[in-house]
Design goal:
10 helices; about 220 residues; 2 domains; Tetracycline Repressor, domain 2; Arc Repressor Mutant, subunit A; mainly alpha
Length: about 220
């Protein structure tokens, strides 16, 4: 059964919403997520504030859409990167490089989802589900690798698995995925924030070394 084509009104509504999202991302790039203003966007579009609120009920709804879109795009990128590498041992590094590449290309969107929380914004449950898609890729790639070592964190994660969304990876694989995520984003966040500027080394070399260290420590 085919779905009915969108009405002209529905198409126009989505066009307006898409333009609003584009302008909001421009605000994020220029002033950070705290600078998102529906009234400023309305002025740019030649609309009144109340008119724009017919398309987004408030700022938080707009922020939620921006966050969800960013997570969905990042999830597609990491999943595609994982699927592109046949060797399970090499897959984590390929995925890690894909995350860094996306972050360097779109730092404002990276910080929107993995930077300082937006003031006054409380993410609804659906954003948690969307964000979990990225972690699921990490869990999948480490579940496919042998993890003979055992640590205290493994025992803790064995019973604290809410963040996994029910993934059946072993506790050791959970630990490797979690530490991969935290250390990966630690280096990326410092690089994007300009903390390595003037230090005289190439952040890409540091990133590659950190990837190798993370993977070596898992054996």
């Amino acid at each position: 059964m085919t779905s009915s084509p969108a009405t002209p009104r529905a198409r126009y509504r989505e066009q307006v919403r898409a333009e609003v999202r584009t302008l909001a991302l421009r605000q994020v790039a220029e002033t950070g997520a705290a600078g998102i203003s529906l009234n400023a966007i309305a002025k740019q579009m030649g609309l009144s504030g109340p008119a724009l609120y017919r398309y987004f009920t408030n700022r938080d709804e707009l922020v939620t859409e921006l966050i969800s879109e960013a997570y969905r795009e990042l999830a597609e990128i990491v999943r595609s990167a994982a699927d592109s590498e046949d060797d399970p041992q090499r897959r984590p590094a390929v995925v890690g490089r894909a995350v860094r590449g996306w972050a360097l290309a779109q730092p404002h969107r990276y910080f929107l989802i993995l930077g300082t929380p937006v003031p006054g914004y409380e993410a609804p449950p659906e954003t948690v589900e969307v964000s979990r898609a990225v972690m699921t890729v990490f869990l999948d790639i480490f579940a496919a690798l042998p993890s003979a070592s055992s640590r205290e964190l493994d025992e803790h994660l064995a019973t604290h698995r809410v963040w996994t969304g029910g993934h059946e990876a072993s506790p050791a694989a959970l630990r490797r995925a979690l530490t991969f995520w935290t250390r990966l984003h630690g280096v990326i966040s410092l690089e994007l924030a300009g903390q390595f500027t003037g230090m005289g080394f190439d952040p890409a070399v540091l990133f590659e070394d950190e990837l190798a260290t993370i993977l070596a420590e898992g054996h």
